[in-house]
Design goal:
single chain, alpha+beta, Uridine Diphospho-n-acetylenolpyruvylglucosamine Reductase, domain 2, five-stranded antiparallel β-sheet, 27% strand, globular
């Protein structure tokens, strides 16, 4: 196990921010993590676990230990007439897992195609897109407690999933490193085209009876049209969560903004697209030097090259302030600012 000092993190975050970590190690297997936690020179309280670096914004150098989770593995645990249970290493690339499941004919995660990041980050964020969240196929996960080195198993209930949330972003934040995730997928997939954009894209593709492979291809097409490739322009995908407001407040807003889009959550709550709010405040396509807002998707903050973390933080705060001032709605970052 090699612990390196003064390591550039530019290639470990999709924003492409040039910062350094005081110490860094690559964790390829659970034994590597055990060796690090047993090292007396390592303070577990200073550990930052990185997956794909696709949901993080560094505001400066990291004065601690960065662990890059590279734990791989795909294993069929068990199956019955309806489902398969698969155990996946937390360092597996998420999109590759989706494509692999499709190849096997297993359904449930095809709507989450092309979401950047790793398997371990997926339940942590409770990733979701086009009518599906990972909690709908989640069985359990294994995670090592950094303070003790002890392995714990977490059920869905223990993870306390919510919108872009799990307990690992709340009370368990910074306390564990996820090592393995178990998903339950369908042998006879049920396709989900509840989002209009998916149905429209399938129609454009000439697909009338879509398979899970068709769903994946349609969503990849949509995402590639809307979202910038981090390999070409630094970004972390959607920067803000879509806010949820009560229906009475929504009706008040609708009297002034008749075209305000919404998605009902229940009888009392409504979700408003953050991208629409930001666009109404004239941020879409904004650019100031190396930082900006993507021209095709107002939810995406971008690094055109050479941006500093604090500049992007300031831009996000200015966007929040303008939305609050105009609509009385507070936007909450989805991206983890360190």
């Amino acid at each position: 196990m090699v612990i390196r000092q003064d390591v550039s993190l530019r290639n470990y975050n999709t924003f492409g921010i040039e910062v350094k970590a005081s110490n860094m190690a690559l964790v390829d297997q659970e034994s590597d993590l055990s060796a690090i936690l047993q090292n007396e020179a390592v303070d577990y309280r200073s550990i930052l676990v990185l997956g794909g670096g696709s949901n993080i914004l560094f505001s400066g150098d990291y004065q601690g230990m960065v662990l890059k989770n590279n734990i791989l593995g795909r294993e069929l645990l068990k199956e019955d007439s309806e489902y398969v249970w698969i155990r996946l290493g937390a360092g597996e690339n998420w999109h590759r897992v989706v494509l692999w499941a499709i190849e096997q004919g297993w359904g449930g995660i095809e709507n989450l195609s092309l979401i950047p990041g790793t398997m371990g980050a997926a339940p942590m964020q409770n990733i979701g897109a086009y009518g599906v969240e990972i909690c709908s196929v989640f069985e359990s996960l294994e995670a090592v407690e950094l303070a003790t080195g002890k392995l714990h198993k977490f059920t869905a209930a223990a993870c306390d999933f919510g919108y872009r949330y799990s307990a690992f972003k709340g009370p368990f934040k910074g306390q564990f490193m996820i090592t393995r995730v178990i998903l339950r997928l369908r042998k006879q997939p049920i396709v989900n085209i509840s989002y209009g954009a998916v149905a429209q894209t399938l129609e454009q593709m000439g697909v009338k009876q879509p398979t899970i492979r068709d769903i994946s291809k349609a969503i990849i097409r949509i995402r590639e049209q809307k979202l910038p490739d981090p390999e070409k322009i630094g970004n972390a995908g959607s920067f803000f969560k879509n806010p949820t407001i009560d229906r009475e407040f929504y009706q008040t807003l609708k009297t002034e903004y008749t075209n305000i889009p919404s998605y009902p959550i229940n009888d009392n709550l409504v979700k408003i697209p953050a991208a629409w709010l930001i666009e109404q405040c004239q941020w879409k396509g904004f650019r100031k030097g190396p930082i900006g807002v993507h021209k095709n998707q107002a939810l995406v903050l971008v690094n055109h090259g050479g941006a500093q973390g604090p500049d992007l933080v300031q831009l996000s705060q200015e966007i929040q302030a303008s939305v609050t001032s105009r609509f009385g709605i507070d936007l909450v970052p989805e991206v983890n600012i360190v």
